[in-house]
Structure formats: structure tokens, C-alpha cells
């Protein structure tokens, strides 16, 4: 169906359906109805109602000028008029002062045209871009501050705000103190000064803020390794528009040559990308912390922070973006740790997508607090360089504690890794403390992974097929191919156990390719036997999808077994569609092979209505979690109804999975969903049973 036709039909969704599907959108969403020169409120989500202070106000059906103050209404109407006349999307930025803080917003107005190309509705989406705007303004302001002198000075220069917090450093600071600019930004200058000199530092900073350049001729700084550096510090006020905006701190290292050689050795132990400790430093750092904790009668926690889906981001956007994400996450972790613990906790680059934090404490509540803040802090959306997109990065954390979970650095590391693995499999985006049961679970998973690697060679994998049925006449309309593993000693191993292992170990790519080959081979057998073969759906993992070779592999299967692409369908989950441009390209290549595209588990991933018109999607599969309680749960019923209506309005087919009762069938038929699969009709069965029952 043409994209414009799909877009026009979205307006037919009623208010209840839109609320059920769009309630989780964080942006401000208004849908305005166009009547002559008036724009009437047709819909607003919760965030929009809260921002516009429309609670307890009967605004639906009223014009903008009847709801908003005159000055605001006039500005809004002008923008809506432009959109109406041009019949094209309008982007604009504005700013507001709310509770004394300046906030920046980006808005897009999108016209919805009817069959006569008349603008009948306008969708307004507003996003808070304050963080990005403030960062941009700060960069522009910093560029005006004597950049050449600042960057090329042989002495270390730190730019402080009026409260003593570090805003920027030059390259020489790294050579003197061992900290990169991103590690120091946001820290208070007092954290670098020996305690005995802190009073003198406060006196000097106070004098400088009065406009007097001051200095400390003999003071002691503490570098990143904990070594003491003798220094001469000059403090110069930063004057902008006759106001003191902060302080330049110029540091000259007066340490001896031998001490500097030791310091250069220290720098060699740093990770090149982030500037934090390398993995090799973990053992000595943990052993030292354990030793200190014994003296102070405190405990030690080891937190391993994993950046979720980093491999997918690397595959989708390239390793340059991946490195950008790693650097940004490390910066956020450092800031959160400093604000939460008031301690210097070593941060170690454990692997490509993992960091380790050594936290000296015996309070479980403090550990929980730190883990929760790290997870929430990393979630803040980031703008990808060179891409007009923002990503939300999630993280998962595994935790072990000394002495409860181990009395050595090796055991603590192993148990924190086990906690991380268990957490990733149960609930990504959260944290987990080590439990003794994890040791058994981890060993079992390692054993299963080794056995799974041998399964293809031993011919232990098999394909079963679950029928897809028409609710109109109870006839077969398709099949879904499902993978099963029967080990010669362990028997059948549930997919819920071995599929996650295959995903994590990248075995899923070889196994997924094997599945396509076996399905194509089976379709050929059925065709040769003269059966009226129905379309067979195959699940496609995200890793397999983004290999860049999936279209070629499927094309080869079609040629080898001489079967038409119309008899194959691929199912991909919403959460796998990370990179819109790359996803659209891959899906179009599959469509060129005449293959159908289905979105699996629809409604459970990172839903976005826009991809339904941008991607060549043929079918939505309603997730079984909605179907199971659709009769008893009004909310699930509303969501299922919305998905069905959305699919129909966009000309997309829809099927319900996990159907088990006649009541569920009656509900689906009433809502005009006439395709289903589930145990009510048949469990997944062998090809032979399909032939006997349906062919």
C-alpha cells in the first residue's frame, strides 16, 4: 500500500485505541483537527496534558485560542497555518523559562491529508532538547576563551566555575595529573589537593573570585595514581562582560625527574580509549582495596557494568559510534560514582562492553543505591554523531561482595560475572547480587554451550511446524518453523534454555542459516509430492539479521531447492529494528525475493508507529502475552483491539499467537482478527504429522 494512503488512514483510529498504544511516548503529542482557520484539540497524551497544564479542563473539541493564553495561542496558530497551507512538515525550536530554568524544545508539525489532499488533521510532537542545547551552547562559549593559549600551554590549565567545579582542562593536564578532560569535568578542585592544603586553596579561590589574581607557591596535588606532586598554582579570574565567571587554575609541576618517570610508567597502565585502568590492573587494585578494608573494618563491592546491545550498535552504526558510546558511558559512570559515594572508586575497562567498579563499603543499601543510579544515569538519551538519531543505552550490573562472596580478587570477579550473566538472562537493564546458585547455573550453561556447538555435527537439531489457521473456515493458511534440540543423553532441551545461549555465543548465526536451509529443503519435498504448500514463517534473530549476508543466504536456499520466495516469510522482533536506514534496506532486499515480512511479538518492543509505514511490513503478530488474558484484562483487550485496527487501517495483515481457548477465538473474531495459531489448534508437530493432518 502507498505510504501516503497508510498515513491518511491512521486518523481513523478512535481515541481509546490511540491512548492504549501511545501512552508510553515520552514526547508531548497533540493531534489537532483542522476546521477552516481553526485548530481544535482532538487528542493529547499525558505528557502533553501535564506540560500544557490542561488537567481538569475540558479542552477536547475547543480551539487553541479558547484554551491557551493569547500570546501563546497566536504563536501556535501561525505555525499551524503554515503547516496547513504548505501541506508539509514544519520544524521549529522555542524556549521557555519554567520555575526559573530555561528549557529548550524542538517541535515538528505533520499534516495529515485526506483523499482530496486537504489537510484535515495536524500531529504535533514536541521533544525536550534542553540537555543537547545546553551542551552545544557551552561548547560555543568555551571556544571563545583564549583557545590557543589554553590548549597549547605547557603548564596544566583547569577552568573552574565560581563554585570550584572543573569545567575544562587542557592537554597538559593529562600529562601532569593523569586525568583526561572528561574524567575531571564536574569534579571539585579540592579532590585533587592534599588535605593539608585545602584551607589555603579555599582562601586563594575566594580572593580570585573578588577579581584578584593569586597563587600558591608550594602545594601538593594528588594524581590519578594517588602519587603526590609538588606544584606551583596560579589562580586567575575569568572575566566576561565585566563579570567574574570562574577561575583559570595554572599548575606547574615541580616534581623531580625520577618521580615523573614513575608517573609515565603509571600512564602506560591506562586503557587508550577511555583513559581508565586496563583489565590487567584489576588484581592489584582489588588486593589493595581488600587490604585497606581489613584495616578499616569495611567491606568491598565489585560491580561489573555491562553496556547492553553494544554489539548490535557496532554492527548497525559502526565501531566509531560504538567507541563514542563507550567513552560517554565511562564518563557517566565516573560522574555518578563521585556524586553517590564521595569516594575515589577505581574504574576498570574489563572488556569491550564492560566496566568494573571497586567500591569500598559493607553497606548493601549503598551498593544498591550506586547500582540503581548508574542504571538510571546511563539511560539518558544520547545523540549519535553524524546520525540524526538518539539512542537510549541500557546497562546491566552484576555484583559480588567481600568477604561474603569470596576472599580473593579472582573469586570476586568470577562471582560478579556469574551474577551479571544471570541478570542479563532474566532481566536486562537491572542489577543482581551474586547468589551461590549462580555457580551451578553458570556451569550448566557453559556445558550446554559446548554441547550446542556439537549439535549441528551430530544432527541433533530438528524443525517442527505449528499450523496457522483461518478463523473463518478453520483451514490451514501457513506454518511457523520452530527449532528443537534433542540431545542423545539429556533428551529434549527447551528452546528457552538453548536459544539465549546461542544468541550470546553467536552460534545463532550458523544455527539460523541451518534452519533456513532445512525449511527450504522441506518445502521442496512437499512441492515434489504435489501438496498445496502454504507459506512457512522462519524466525530471524537480530544478530543474523545484521550480518549483512542474510539476503544472500536466503537467495541461495531458494535457488538450491528451486522454490518460490512467496512460500517463505521471515519474522523479526520490534527490538531488533535498531537502525532504521539499515533495517529498511535489508527488508527491501528480502521483499525483492518475494518474501513476506512479519513483525513478531508486536507491542512488546520499542514500538514506533512510523516504522509501519516506512518498512515493507506484511503482517503483525500479536504477542501471546496479550492474548493469554485478553478476555479477563480490559487493558490487554484494548491493546489487542488497537493493534488489529491499526493493522487493518494500514492494509497490514494480523495474526494472534498463543491462542488456547474458544473464548479467545470468539474475541478475535469479534474484533476481525481472522488468523491465529496456538495450542487450541495444534502444538508444533513434525513434517509427517503436517502431511497427515493438513496436506
TrEMBL record:
Residues 298-436 form the GGDEF domain. It holds the Pfam family GGDEF. Residues 142-212 form the PAS domain. It comes from the Bacteria. SMART domains: EAL (SM00052), GGDEF (SM00267), PAS (SM00091). Residues 445-695 form the EAL domain. This is GGDEF domain-containing protein.
